[in-house]
C-alpha cells in the first residue's frame, strides 16, 4: 500500500475537487489532472488497498448498467466496499421521503455517494445537504460528468491528443446528457464540432451559445456522408421522444452506422456512451473504428481516479 | 413655461424611477400591485432629464423588500428605488442585479429538481447585457424572455 501511495503521489495525483457534479465546475487543468490520474490508475487495475475501510453508497434512482457496475468495480479495485440501491421503489423514497433526507441518511452509513437521478440538478442539491463527497452519475437531461471524463480519456488515449481534432456528434443531441457534458468539456480544447441530429432533437441553444462564446466552430451537417471527423460520438435516438412512431421509423435508418456507411468515415473512431439499440450495426463492432467497448472499460480507471481524488486520500 | 408633474407626489411610500419604457406594467405585475389596496400611480413614457423616456411607479404606504428590489432589477436594470417619508426622499438607490438570485424566480425547466424538493431556487448571474442567468441546480440558462416568464410564475 505504501509503495502504491508513493507512486501516485510522486505522479502528482492531486485531489481535484470534493464533489464531481458538473463539467461546468472543471477547467482544462482539472480535466487534464483527471486524465493523468486515470492513466496512473490503469497500473493498479488488478487491485490496491488505498481506499480500504471506506464505503461507497450508490444511490441509483434510475436504471444503469455500465455506470453503476464500473463505479462498483472501481471502488472494489481500490480496496473499498459498496452499499446502495439500483431502484428507488424498494426504499423510503417510495414512501415519500425527500431526496435531501435520503442523502442525509446515507451520509450516516458511508464515506462517499454516487447518485443517478431523473431530475436535472438532483446531484447538486444532494451535494449541498451532505458533508461527504458526492459524484453525479447522471442527473436528468443535464450532466453526466464522469462519462465525459472517460470519453475524453478514450479520445486522448487512442489519438494522443484532443486539441486539433474534429469531433462529430450524432443522434439525440437535445436530450442526451452525455452530449451536453461532452460539448461543455470540449469547449476547453482547440476542437471543431460537426453535429447531425433529427429535426427537433438538435443541440439546445443554451449549449451552442456557450460553445460559440468560447469560439468553438460548430457545423451542422445534414447527412452522414457530409461528416468529416476524427471522432464520431453516437447517441441513441429514443423512440419515446417522437410523438409519431412513423416519424421515428423514418429517421432511424438515416442515423445508423453500418459497414457500408463506414466508407465515409475513413479512420474516424466511433464512440458511444451505450446502451445502443440499433444505431450501430453489430457488424461494425469488429472494425478498428469501433471503440465503444474499450470506452466502457476506460470507465473503471477514470472512476478509480475520481473516487480516490474525491475521498482526498492524499491530503 | 411652468413644468408640472403629471403624477402627484406621495406622502409616504416608494417611487420606482427610471424604469425601462414600457416595463412598468411588468413591474406592477411582479410586485402584485394589482391587488394592493393603497394608491399606485403609473407614468409611462415620461421624458427624462436627458430627453430619454422612462416609466415611473409611485406606491403609497409601501416599502419594498430586498427580494422585490432584486425582481425589479431583472426587468428594469436601470431603475432607482426612492423611499419617501413626509414628501421627502429619505433614500435613493439604484437597483443592481445580484450575482446570486435566490428564491425569487421559478426555474423554467420543468424537470428541475427545485420543482420537486423543498428548496429555494438559486440562479447565478452569467451576463448583464444581454441578461443571462444560470440555474444553480439544473444549469439551464435563462434569457430575458425566460426570466420574464419565470418571474410571472414565481
Detailed description of the structure:
The complex is a heterodimer of chains A (315) and B (154). With 315 residues, chain A is an alpha/beta fold. Chain A folds into two domains: 2-143 and 298-310, Rossmann fold; 146-296, Aspartate/ornithine carbamoyltransferase (Rossmann fold, 3-Layer(aba) Sandwich), CATH 3.40.50.1370. Helices cover 38% and strands 14% of the residues of chain A. Chain A has helices at 2-10, 28-41, 66-77, 99-109, 122-128, 145-159, 177-186, 205-213, 245-252, 259-265, 292-310, and strands at 55-60, 81-85, 112-117, 134-139, 166-170, 192-196, 217-220, 231-234, 269-271. A five-stranded parallel sheet of chain A has the order 7-6-5-8-9, with helices on one face. In chain A, strands 2-1-3-4 form a four-stranded parallel sheet, with helices on both faces. In chain A, strand 5, helix 7 (177-186) and strand 6 (192-196) form a beta-alpha-beta unit. In chain A, helix 2 packs across helix 11 (292-310), helix 6 (145-159) packs across helix 7 and helix 6 (145-159) crosses helix 11 (292-310). Chain A starts with a helix and ends in a 5-residue tail after the last helix. Chain B has 154 residues and is α+β, with helices and mostly antiparallel strands. Chain B folds into two domains: 13-94, Aspartate carbamoyltransferase regulatory subunit, N-terminal domain (Alpha-Beta Plaits), CATH 3.30.70.140; 100-153, Aspartate carbamoyltransferase regulatory subunit, C-terminal domain (SH3 type barrels, Roll). Helices cover 18% and strands 33% of the residues of chain B. In chain B, the strands form two sheets. Chain B has a five-stranded antiparallel sheet, with no helix packed on it. In chain B, strands 6-7-8-9 form a four-stranded antiparallel sheet. The longest helix of chain B has 10 residues, at 66-75. Chain B is globular, with a radius of gyration of 17 Å. Chain B starts with 12 loop residues before the first strand and ends with a helix. The chains are: A alpha/beta (315), B alpha+beta (154). The A-B interface holds A 22, 24, 98-100, 117-122, 124-125, 139-143, 206, 209-210 and B 109, 111-114, 116-119, 135-141.
Amino acid at each position: 500500500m505504501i509503495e502504491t501511495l508513493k507512486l501516485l503521489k510522486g505522479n502528482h495525483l492531486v485531489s481535484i475537487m470534493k464533489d464531481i457534479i458538473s463539467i461546468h465546475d472543471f477547467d482544462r487543468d482539472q480535466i487534464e489532472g483527471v486524465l493523468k490520474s486515470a492513466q496512473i490508475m490503469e497500473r493498479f487495475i488488478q487491485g490496491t488497498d488505498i481506499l480500504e475501510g471506506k464505503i461507497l453508497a450508490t444511490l441509483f434512482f434510475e436504471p444503469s448498467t455500465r455506470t453503476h457496475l464500473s463505479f462498483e468495480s472501481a471502488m472494489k479495485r481500490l480496496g473499498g466496499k459498496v452499499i446502495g440501491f439500483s431502484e428507488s421503489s424498494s426504499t423510503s423514497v417510495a414512501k415519500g421521503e425527500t431526496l435531501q433526507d435520503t442523502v442525509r441518511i446515507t451520509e450516516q452509513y458511508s464515506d462517499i455517494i454516487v447518485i443517478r437521478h431523473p431530475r436535472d440538478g438532483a446531484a447538486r442539491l444532494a451535494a449541498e445537504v451532505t458533508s461527504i463527497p458526492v459524484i453525479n452519475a447522471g442527473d436528468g437531461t443535464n450532466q453526466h460528468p464522469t462519462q465525459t471524463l472517460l470519453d475524453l480519456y478514450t479520445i486522448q488515449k487512442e489519438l494522443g491528443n484532443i486539441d486539433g481534432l474534429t469531433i462529430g456528434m450524432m443522434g439525440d443531441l437535445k436530450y442526451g446528457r452525455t452530449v451536453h457534458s461532452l460539448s461543455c468539456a470540449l469547449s476547453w480544447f482547440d476542437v471543431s464540432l460537426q453535429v447531425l441530429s433529427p429535426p427537433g432533437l438538435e443541440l439546445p441553444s443554451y449549449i451552442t451559445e456557450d460553445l460559440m462564446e468560447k469560439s468553438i466552430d460548430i457545423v451542422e451537417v445534414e447527412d452522414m456522408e457530409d461528416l468529416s471527423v476524427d471522432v464520431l460520438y453516437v447517441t441513441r435516438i429514443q423512440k419515446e421522444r417522437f410523438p409519431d412512431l412513423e416519424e421515428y421509423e423514418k429517421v432511424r435508418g438515416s442515423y445508423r452506422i453500418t459497414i457500408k456507411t463506414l466508407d465515409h468515415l475513413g479512420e474516424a473512431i466511433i464512440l458511444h456512451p451505450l446502451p445502443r439499440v440499433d444505431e450501430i450495426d453489430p457488424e461494425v463492432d469488429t472494425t478498428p473504428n469501433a471503440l465503444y467497448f474499450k470506452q466502457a472499460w476506460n470507465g473503471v480507471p477514470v472512476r478509480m481516479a475520481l473516487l480516490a481524488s474525491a475521498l482526498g486520500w492524499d491530503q | 413655461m411652468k413644468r408640472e408633474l403629471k403624477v402627484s407626489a406621495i406622502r409616504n411610500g416608494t417611487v420606482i424611477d427610471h424604469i425601462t419604457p414600457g416595463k412598468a406594467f411588468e413591474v406592477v405585475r411582479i410586485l402584485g400591485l394589482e391587488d394592493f389596496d393603497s394608491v399606485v400611480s403609473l407614468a409611462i413614457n415620461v421624458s427624462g432629464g436627458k430627453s430619454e423616456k422612462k416609466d415611473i411607479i409611485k406606491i403609497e404606504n409601501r416599502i419594498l423588500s430586498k427580494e422585490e428590489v432584486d425582481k425589479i432589477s431583472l426587468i428594469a436594470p436601470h431603475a432607482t428605488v426612492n423611499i419617501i417619508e413626509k414628501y421627502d426622499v429619505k433614500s435613493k438607490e439604484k437597483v443592481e442585479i445580484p450575482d446570486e438570485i435566490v428564491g425569487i424566480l421559478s426555474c423554467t425547466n420543468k424537470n428541475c429538481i427545485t420543482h420537486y424538493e423543498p428548496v429555494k431556487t438559486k440562479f447565478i448571474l452569467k451576463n448583464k447585457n444581454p441578461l443571462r442567468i444560470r440555474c444553480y441546480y439544473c444549469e439551464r440558462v435563462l434569457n430575458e424572455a425566460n426570466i420574464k416568464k419565470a418571474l410571472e410564475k414565481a
